[in-house]
Amino acid sequence: AKETHSREKMHMNIGTIGHVDHGKTTLTAAITKHLAEKAGAGKFYAYDQIDNAPEERARGITINASVVAYETENRHYGHVDCPGHADYIKNMITGTSKMDAAILVVAATDGTMLQTREHLLLAKQIGVNDLIVYMNKADVADEEMIELVEMEIREVLTNHGFNGDDTPVIIGSALCALEDKEPKLGNDSITKLVEEIDKLPMPKRNLDSPAVLPVETTHKIPGKGTVVTGCMSQGVFKKGDAVEIIGYGSTLKATIAGMEMFHKTLERCEAGDSAGLLVKGVKREELRRGMVAVAAGQIRPARSIIAQFYLLSKSEGGRDKPIPNDFSAMLFFKTWNCEARSVIEENDLVMPGEQGKMKFVIRVPMVMIVGDRFTLRTGSVTVGTGIVTEVIE
Ligand code: GDP
Ligand code: MG
């Protein structure tokens, strides 16, 4: 048989964000067309194929999102494009289609708009730090307008905590590229865009933060000790490390006596690994799913968090009214749930079908970490979903 050249390409998840009608879907189609024709890699997705996003259910929320795949010489990409503003909000908060970096599309004819800013805010909250701006519709805007809009974009980026000075801003027309017109504004701009996409830093696994392993199961191994299993969400554990296993109001001290992954002994275990830790110094009876094993002294349990929160609309099975102050419901994190109360300051209500900042206080201290996602339920009904943006004592 003939050997095929197969080099594993690095994979990255990106997507288009920006105000409605600024050209996100047209640009997505143009990128796939460009790469399919020029680089012979991947297939061309026509506008209608992308905009016809399949419905996906995430924790009781319907999200419409298209994920298209394309590749350059060096990398493979998954690219998300959502049909509507609400879909972007829900997708970003639930993390259904993850984005490591984003292409912000701004029409030169409008400049930044309300949804542009809302997407930037959410991108920041979910940990997207790298952006490329594609200033679209340059075919119907004059020079002066383009210059002004670029200045405005850079300022808005800076105001949202991005690097407004150094973020690449590519000026072009996605429609011209798609229709093979005006090559300078059309295809050339896509060539430049793809070059910038390929320069985006690859996402780093979070190895520098304190080690954290949310406990999923616990086992007793007679004569040896207790094993807790779970997927490490950040950091690195090594054999012999001092750990604390925290949750439901207790903090238990233990030592890692051994580690295993897929029945193989490990000397170290890092973010992304699903592992079993053999811990000495605690009894299995003291441990429960939902507790979190952390590097000793590095992380403390808390009762209050601030979250970026999406409240489901009535038609999504949610409430018809905003959540009032001191509203009681259950917060569901990945491995645990707990009764929580809302704290609304200055009448900052989040309306059904919209997102905003919300504070919750839970009944017992638990480990919650910025970036953790959760849902809020009353009975068996999901009323909203959030991402932790701040942990308060
Ligand atoms: P989205 O809502 O951000 O996905 O925007 P679409 O991609 O659906 O584009 C909205 C409208 O703008 C459509 O009618 C497009 O044909 C048009 N459009 C997109 N890109 C350009 C462009 O570069 N120039 C012009 N003149 N129109 C464009
Ligand atoms: Mg669209």
Automatic annotation (TrEMBL):
| UniProt keyword Cytoplasm, yes or no | no
Q: Which GO terms describe its biological process?
A: mitochondrial translational elongation
Q: Which UniProt keywords apply?
A: Elongation factor, GTP-binding, Mitochondrion, Nucleotide-binding, Protein biosynthesis
> Which subcellular locations apply to this protein?
Mitochondrion
The molecular function terms in GO held by this entry are:
GTP binding; GTPase activity; translation elongation factor activity
In the UniProt record, which is one GO cellular component term? mitochondrion
Instruction: Specify where it is mainly localized.
Output: mitochondrion
Recorded E.C. number(s)?
A: 3.6.5.3
Q: What class of enzyme is it?
A: hydrolase
The Tr-type G domain covers: 9-202
The transmembrane residues are: none
Query: Which reactions are catalysed by this chain?
Result: GTP + H2O = GDP + phosphate + H(+)
Domain of life of the organism encoding this protein:
Eukaryota
Recorded family membership: Belongs to the TRAFAC class translation factor GTPase superfamily. Classic translation factor GTPase family. EF-Tu/EF-1A subfamily.
Kindly provide the name given to this protein in its UniProt entry.
Elongation factor Tu, mitochondrial
- Origin species, per record, is Phallusia mammillata
Q: Which gene encodes it?
A: Tufm
Shown part of the complete sequence:
62 to 454 of 484
